[in-house]
Task: inverse folding
């Protein structure tokens, strides 16, 4: 294909009498004026005396030779005086781009460039890579069909085809099926201003300054068109994704089978016996209602001890045939006698608490209470996910219809389209969250079934030994992990600033549910209800949305948020310190009076040590961490507010988990091989996952053009990038983290509850 370029130059700066150029061809007309005027931000104008345009090429026909083109150039001006101009018509030697061959050229706002590319016979998709050594001037790369006229000026380049803004790097994936003629134009336009790419705007609009500025706005570019991946790579990537996580299913089956064999051998050998002798339970020692002078408040009377095991009163169970689903029992916190409330206040303020003190309520009713977590999170997931899916489909449709690839922040050097999706690899890599979440649900279901069978057989170990088995929170965690995969996939349909909270909302819930589960383990009677927990998550997500809207530069928002953060930390600390025996509803300011009283009695009046030393240490460290986060946010005001909140949740979870494991080892409890393996696997996989997470491939905190400077090629199978590997590893890390919580206290299954300390 032959192409012709027309260059014109005029020394006239008279905007009232410009020189008009009209080029007439066989299939089109192209016109412009000199000085050529571009408009920028705030109605700034930029005048160019030199203009160079490529004429729309024509295919040779049998009637004409390849070199024959008839062109008419009309020059006119309404000026009452003569105007000198220069006209030069040249034939382009390198108009057609070749595959895998870099091509260098120069462009400016008044001298745009475009070139032709034809698909080779064996190539169905190509990636157009454009690079430049200089970030500015800002430029636009466009892919347009073979239609005349070609839109190659700043004010019309967005009218046709697919386009991206660019500083140092741009990449556009083009598929053969989108161009029936199997060829397209690659258009390069230099913008008159840089604000669209994150650059500064000139402060002066005087003519002389404009001319000096204009002479500097040329950019050297290099374009390389390389073949993209073949369809077989898509198949390999999908097989890899599913088989990788199916191996977790196989490993779980093997572990379950080995466990079954060991249990059967122990059962056949008759070695299943209580830890202490015949398994006959001794009666508990009474708790003194009147505290003798000089004794600890609510302490157990040691004088009557005769060497037997000290137990609190056995669990209160309803008589056979009673209705455990009674709403009256649920609404009254399962206690129907006023004496029990006094009993709670005495027991839960003992200096040394054991699990039997906090597992006194009926197991079946408490289990139903925790199953509300499971049913509520399913409802939340449905109502949250459906609008999200609808919104991201709209985003993707807008991208496909308008061709504006600045809407979504992909890693364009590794964005493989499939159907209407622009980056299928980023969506496929989230399959791990869904598969491992479902696997975790199956593992929890197996444990639940085994526990129910043991209860039906009246197995003594399931009645008064070990941690009380309540699986509602575990089911909720499995659903949350699956929904994290769904919403992360939705976010990656079109990642941008507006929908980033979709990717983090269920991460908040996962972190919160893990902390609740960890606390529930040894505080089954006093853990938060599902309604209050999910209401708290709703407040957090609301704050995240407000942070997206107001958290950029508004100081007032950060002041209010920091105050809420600090006050919430203090309120929660007081509740934990007093084991939930202080009710916030009794007095709005009472909880903070209680916090001051704690500081006075435990830190000033009793300088020796606080009444609850372990709890005090945890809460002091936790408050220092949270107050540090509040101060950091107030000072630096991070733009990524959603990640900032997520960091708060994760740090609190890690702090509590570390405290729990340390206290467990300090209490001479053991870590069995499976939880020990899960802890090591969790640490290793999280370390690897975070390495890939911090390999920033795009950033919606910057302009789309600046974000593309961070784009990198694929690193796995030629299909997945660093962030996809983060998806794979984070799914495995969350799965192992859940298994840690599920198996951490398996060593206590044969230990009486009055011997298991509470911390």
Result:
């Amino acid at each position: 294909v032959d192409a012709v370029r027309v260059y014109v130059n005029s020394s006239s700066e008279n905007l009232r009498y410009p020189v008009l150029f009209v080029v007439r061809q066989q299939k089109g007309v192209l016109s412009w004026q000199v000085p050529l005027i571009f408009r920028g931000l705030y109605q700034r104008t930029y005048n160019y005396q030199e203009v160079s345009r490529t004429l729309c090429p024509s295919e040779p026909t049998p009637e004409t030779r390849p070199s024959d083109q008839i062109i008419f150039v009309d020059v006119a001006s309404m000026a009452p005086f003569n105007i000198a101009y220069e006209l030069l018509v040249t034939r382009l030697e390198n108009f057609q781009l070749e595959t895998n061959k870099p091509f260098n050229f120069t462009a400016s706002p008044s001298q745009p460039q475009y070139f032709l590319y034809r698909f080779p016979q064996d190539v169905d998709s190509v990636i157009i890579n454009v690079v430049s050594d200089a970030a500015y001037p800002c430029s636009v790369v466009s892919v347009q069909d073979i239609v005349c006229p070609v839109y190659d000026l700043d004010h019309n380049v967005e009218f046709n085809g697919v386009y991206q803004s660019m500083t140092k790097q741009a990449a556009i994936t083009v598929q053969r099926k989108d161009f029936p003629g199997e060829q397209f134009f690659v258009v390069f336009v230099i913008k008159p201003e840089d604000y669209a790419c994150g650059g500064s705007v000139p402060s002066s609009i005087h003519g002389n300054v404009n001319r000096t500025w204009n002479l500097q706005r040329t950019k050297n570019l290099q374009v390389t068109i390389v073949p993209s991946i073949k369809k077989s790579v898509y198949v390999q990537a999908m097989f890899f994704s599913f088989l990788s996580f199916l191996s977790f299913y196989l490993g779980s089956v093997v572990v379950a089978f080995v466990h079954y064999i060991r249990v059967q051998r122990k059962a056949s050998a008759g070695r299943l016996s209580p830890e202490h002798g015949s398994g006959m339970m001794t009666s508990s020692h009474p708790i003194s209602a009147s505290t003798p002078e000089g004794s600890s408040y609510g302490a157990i009377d040691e004088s009557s001890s005769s060497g037997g095991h000290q137990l609190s009163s056995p669990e209160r169970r309803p008589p056979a045939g009673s209705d455990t689903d009674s709403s009256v029992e649920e609404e009254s916190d399962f206690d129907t006698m006023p004496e029990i409330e006094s009993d709670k206040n005495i027991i839960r303020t003992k200096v040394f608490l054991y699990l039997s003190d906090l597992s006194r309520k009926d197991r079946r009713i408490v289990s139903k209470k925790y199953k509300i977590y499971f049913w509520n999170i399913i409802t939340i997931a449905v109502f949250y996910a459906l609008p999200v899916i609808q919104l991201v489909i709209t985003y993707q449709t807008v991208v496909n219809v308008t061709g504006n690839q600045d809407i979504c922040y992909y890693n364009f050097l590794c964005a493989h389209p499939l159907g209407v999706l622009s980056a299928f690899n980023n969506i496929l890599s989230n399959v791990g969250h869904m598969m491992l979440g479902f696997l975790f649900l199956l593992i929890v279901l197996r444990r639940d079934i085994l526990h129910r069978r043991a209860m039906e057989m009246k197995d003594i170990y399931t009645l008064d030994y070990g941690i009380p088995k309540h699986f509602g929170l575990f089911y909720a965690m499995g659903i949350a992990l699956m929904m994290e995969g769904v919403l992360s996939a939705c976010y990656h349909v079109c990642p941008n600033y507006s929908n980033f909270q979709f990717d983090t909302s269920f991460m908040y819930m996962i972190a919160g549910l893990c902390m609740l589960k960890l606390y529930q383990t040894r505080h089954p009677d006093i853990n938060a209800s599902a309604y209050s927990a999910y209401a708290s998550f709703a407040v957090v997500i609301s704050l995240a949305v407000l942070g997206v809207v107001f958290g950029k530069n508004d100081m007032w928002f950060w002041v209010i948020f920091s105050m809420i953060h600090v006050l919430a930390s203090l309120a929660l600390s007081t509740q934990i310190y007093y084991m939930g025996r202080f009710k916030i509803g009794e007095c709005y300011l009472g909880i903070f009076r209680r916090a001051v009283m704690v500081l006075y009695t435990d830190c000033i009046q009793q300088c020796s040590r606080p009444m609850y030393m372990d709890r005090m240490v945890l809460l002091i460290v936790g408050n220092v961490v949270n107050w540090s986060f509040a101060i950091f946010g107030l000072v630096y005001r991070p733009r990524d507010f959603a990640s900032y909140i997520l960091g708060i949740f994760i740090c609190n979870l890690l702090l509590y988990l570390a405290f729990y494991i340390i206290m467990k080892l300090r209490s001479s409890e053991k870590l069995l091989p499976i939880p020990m393996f899960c802890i090591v696997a969790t640490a290793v996989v999280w370390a690897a996952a975070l390495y890939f997470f911090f390999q920033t491939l795009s950033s919606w905190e910057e302009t789309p053009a600046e974000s593309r400077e961070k784009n990198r090629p694929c690193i796995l199978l030629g299909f997945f990038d660093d962030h996809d590997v983060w998806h794979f590893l984070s799914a495995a890390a969350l799965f192992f983290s859940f298994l840690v919580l599920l198996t951490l206290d398996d060593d206590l299954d044969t230990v009486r509850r009055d011997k298991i300390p509470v911390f």
Q: What stands out?
A: Confidence is low (pLDDT under 50) at residues 205-212, 271-342, 581-589. DSSP finds 18 helices and 16 strands in the chain.
